[in-house]
Amino acid sequence: MIRELHVTLEHFDDWTVVTEELDRISIRSLAFSSNPPDYNIEVLLVNGERDQVSQFASMLRKGGLNSIRKVLYVSKIRGRGLEVGLLGDFAQSIRRRLMERGMIFSSLEIRGGLESYKLYSVTCGRECLADLRAELTSCSKVHEFSTFVHTPPLSPEAGLTPLEERVLRVAYEEGLFDTPRGVKLEDLARSFKVSKNTLNYHVKNGIKKILRRYFASWINTV
């Protein structure tokens, strides 16, 4: 089973918070290497409006940004962008907290003071994710923490729409049908970015289709 995790957060006392005032640039991680527990090296691609890109470059050259031990280089690239190499404080990084739980990094984008991660895991289950969220909450303001489980599709004979199948799988994996419930309906709805009533409709409609298929098969064998 592969879990896909989307995390967006505001990391307290980190250099990334300065981008809140530079809302017309985006920063993407190109490469990352760590030397636990001490430091990490990261290469970033900075794009956006020329004046804000220049302002960000000036901040880097001036120094003093939290969790950056040393700016290794700042190079202009074609267009209006920069490539930046940093020596960072690994112990204080969000990446350390994610890597300790076996997360596989797909992407990281920094924009408007927020860090947005797309991750994958094959080992971090429900309890692990709850611990991770609690730890992230202790050092940041978490705006999004949503998970999706990649599993083989159900038989098309069930007649579920892709959304219904996805909703039911996540609801099952997160413990919506457990006693006591492992997740609240409103929290699940928030992760799908829909209302509680809308999510409840998809859950009930999907279950109804599965039961209809099940009982139809059972009647045909009697």
What does this entry look like structurally?
The longest helix is centred in the last third of the chain and has 26 residues, at 196-221. By secondary structure, the chain is α+β, with helices and mostly antiparallel strands. A hairpin with a 3-residue loop joins strand 2 (25-35) and strand 3. An 8-stranded antiparallel sheet has the order 4-5-3-2-6-7-1-8. It has 2 domains: 2-148, no CATH class; 151-221, Arc Repressor Mutant, subunit A. The chain contains 6 helices and 8 strands. It starts with a strand and ends with a helix.
Order of helices and strands: EEEHEEHEEHEHHH
Global morphology: elongated
- % residues in beta strands: 25-35%
Most strands sheet:
8 strands, antiparallel
Low-confidence sequence ranges: none
Q: Helix content range of the residues, please?
A: 25-40%
Quickly count the domains: 2
Query: What is the tally of beta strands?
Result: 8
Average pLDDT rating:
89
- State the distance separating the first and last CA atoms: 36 Å
Instruction: Please tell me how large the radius of gyration is.
Output: 22 Å
How many H/I helices?
Answer: 6
**Helical/strand content category:** alpha+beta
Keywords:
Arc Repressor Mutant, subunit A; 36% helix; 222 residues; alpha+beta; single chain; 6 helices; elongated
